[in-house]
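Internal ticket - ligand job 256, iron/sulfur cluster:
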Amino acid sequence: MLRLLGFLLNQGVATSKDYCSPSADSLGLPAFGNQTCIGTSCTQCSTVCPTDAIAVADYPNGGNVSLDLGACIGCGMCIRECPEGTLVANKNPSVARFKREDLILSNVEKSATQDASIQPSIFAKSIACRVVSTGCSACDLEVAACGNSIFDMERYGIHVVASPRFADVLLVTGPVPKAMHDALKSCYEQMAEPRRVIAVGTCAISGGLHKGGYAEANGVEGLLPVDLFIPGCPPHPWSIIDGIRKVMSGSVGRGA
Ligand code: SF4
Ligand code: SF4
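stdout (structure tokens):
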């Protein structure tokens, strides 16, 4: 017994103390570096992008790159192909946004500030999440990782519950194919007000690679009101925890 206790004490603390700290590694999504885009004489990024997440237009003294994180699957092709270093790896996990349009970034135009219309939430102390998986399960694995000893989301008052009747927030993963539409709506209808919906991952936001396909898997928007969008394919556990905490601290336009 004493040997076991000694062994456990020598393991140290596994739980990360640095909340949502920028990663040394790429988190998959691209971001804008300091270098100027050369514009439509190049377009290598938009040519290689498999989900049409990038558009390039000419702009005085360079190019205007529109990057839709809600459509990006984090393949990294645009970063590899960009000859100028305009596109670089994103290392900041705080990528969740309340509004879909705030996921569309530009290297030359400032994004709208999302914080102006935030209203307080009653979920400030704790929140119960029901996860509905409609996709490949990579996002579900990252949601599960949020509960491990490293990320330990329970310390922030974030709990996963088995029934929608106990849930405050619905975490939707996957592209939501037509076969899941009724099941997802049924789950949402069983939740008590006030209730929130979070689209976890690019598929849930826009359908990702499945968008426009025969399965009508175009994401959760249009089916349910989405309160928060967490991009990534899949999102990092810190991105998921940070997103849920954004819902806990406030919401845009939906009040308590
Ligand atoms: S990383 Fe995203 S934006 Fe870049 S090519 Fe891949 S899917 Fe497109
Ligand atoms: S690859 Fe780089 S330089 Fe070329 S259009 Fe895209 S962002 Fe601009």
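Auto-summary: The mean pLDDT is 91. Residues 37-38, 42-45, 56, 63, 65, 81-84, 86-87 surround iron/sulfur cluster (ligand 2) (CB under 6 Å).
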